[in-house]
């Protein structure tokens, strides 16, 4: 069924790029509720427009700080070496002040509502790895189908088979 059938010439791939990236993880408690500070990407952004992410930090601000988590994230031909930084206590405001985003682009979101937001894949990966956001299992179509629908389909197949005879 394959139209190329066997060996064929392929276009050369662009060289992989590597880029460092730093993000702020700012959490706050309101009673029993935990909230996460997120930044909404502009609607006219070329990538992931309107989606939410952790606020990016300039590289010079994080120099000498120990990240909360390190991970690699690949998008097409770029490997991002990501470090996420959290304030060192309630009096550490340096990271929060270093976020270049406008206040209107930042939003506190309840951790329990993160699954309802359009998050970037990187933001979702970070929040799940730090267990701030729960991992929602993907259900396959067969799993979602109620038992009575499966029985109904079996009866219909039987009727089709007897109709053909």
In which range does the helix fraction lie? 10-25%
User: Which stretches are poorly predicted, pLDDT < 50 over at least 5 residues?
Assistant: none
How big a fraction of the residues is strand? Answer: 25-35%
Shape: extended
- Strand order in space, largest sheet: 5-1-7-6
Terminal residue distance: 32 Å
Could you tell me the radius of gyration in angstroms? 24 Å
Number of helices: 5
Average pLDDT, to the nearest integer? 84
Strand tally is 8
What structural class do helix, strand and pairing data support?
A: alpha+beta
- What sequence of helices (H) and strands (E) makes up the elements? EEEEEHEEHEHHH
Characterize the main sheet: 4 strands, mixed
Q: What is this structure, in a nutshell?
A:
It contains 5 helices and 8 strands; from the N terminus they run E-E-E-E-E-H-E-E-H-E-H-H-H.
Structural commentary:
- The chain has helices at residues 59-62, 94-98, 121-129, 141-144, 147-164, and strands at 17-24, 27-30, 33-40, 52-53, 56-57, 69-75, 78-85, 106-110.
- The protein has a four-stranded mixed beta sheet. Strands 2, 3, 4 and 8 form a four-stranded antiparallel beta sheet that branches.
- The model has no long low-confidence stretch (mean pLDDT 84).
- With 165 residues, the protein is α+β, with helices and mostly antiparallel strands.
- 24% of the residues lie in helices and 27% in strands.
Write the layout of secondary structure elements.
Layout: E1 17-24, E2 27-30, E3 33-40, E4 52-53, E5 56-57, H1 59-62, E6 69-75, E7 78-85, H2 94-98, E8 106-110, H3 121-129, H4 141-144, H5 147-164
Parallel strand pairs: 1-7
Antiparallel strand pairs: 1-5, 2-3, 3-4, 3-8, 6-7
